Amino acid sequence: MWSEELENRLHGKNVASSVIIYGQARERYAKELAKAYLCEGQKTPCGVCLHCLKVEKDIHPDVIVIGEDGASLKVSTVREMRADAYVHPNEAKRKIYIITRAETLNASAQNALLKLLEEGPSFAVFFFLLPNPEQLLDTIQSRSEAVYCFEDSSHEPSQLAMDIVDALKEDTNPLELLPMLVLLEKKKRDEFIVLLDDIIQILVERVKENPELYLPKLEVFQTLRANAEYNLGVGHMVGFLIAKLV
């Protein structure tokens, strides 16, 4: 999963030192990305070098997970992380901080992070895991690379998802979308969420072709997908889409 995408991500000259990771599989993706950042194999991540194996077993001293205890992240936590970030890595070439539940960072805590993101040591890397990038301040977002990760990158979107995205084309009457959206109210919640992931997967590709048209649509579905984690009913979610798209 994601092997080609991860390898391509690290082939550029400027490897991101701050990454916002959102989507259904964000925790698994963060682990795979940490392997890729620290890997010493020929293929990245190789999965068999000492760094990859330690990351997989959650015992790598240079991969620090913050917030996994479920507590909200406060300024004091950020200050401790900031002090630790200037200590050189133990074994690897980089030191990675995986900040789970980053949506619990209040404005003060995020502001405390800014200087670290701007002027911190070159070996320090930060992964922010949360349902929706919009839950972070614009100043954090602008200094980070955002990655949306699906549960399975080999999954083929459904025909219904393709039909809905096709109805979002520029020359299509938005009212043609309405009957399809109304029918979605009959879906079970789990089925509806899978459909949202399919639509987002298609839109991510369409944005590359026509960002002006598809980026606003992608943002609508990403916002809804993030909010779906808070147990919204299908009827409320369909109503949101109708209000935004029709």
Task: Write up what this structure looks like.
The chain is an alpha/beta fold and 246 residues long. Helices cover 49% and strands 10% of the residues. It contains eleven helices and five strands. It has a five-stranded parallel beta sheet with strand order 2-3-4-1-5, sandwiched between helices. Helix 7 crosses helix 9 (189-209) and helix 9 packs antiparallel against helix 10 (211-227). It is elongated and about 60 Å long. The protein starts with a helix and ends with a helix.
Q: What would you say about this model in short?
A:
The chain has 246 residues and is of the alpha/beta class. The protein has eleven helices and five strands, in the order αβααβαβαβαβααααα.
List keywords for this structure.
246 residues; alpha/beta; 11 helices; elongated
Rg (CA only):
19 Å
Round the mean pLDDT to the nearest integer and report it: 86
Largest sheet: 5 strands, parallel
The neighbouring-strand order within the major sheet is 2-3-4-1-5
What is the fold's blueprint, element by element?
Layout: H1 3-9, E1 18-22, H2 26-38, H3 50-56, E2 63-66, H4 75-85, E3 95-99, H5 107-119, E4 124-129, H6 138-142, E5 145-148, H7 159-166, H8 178-183, H9 189-209, H10 211-227, H11 234-245
Parallel strand pairs: 1-4, 1-5, 2-3, 3-4
Helix pairs in contact: 2-3, 4-5, 7-9, 9-10, 10-11
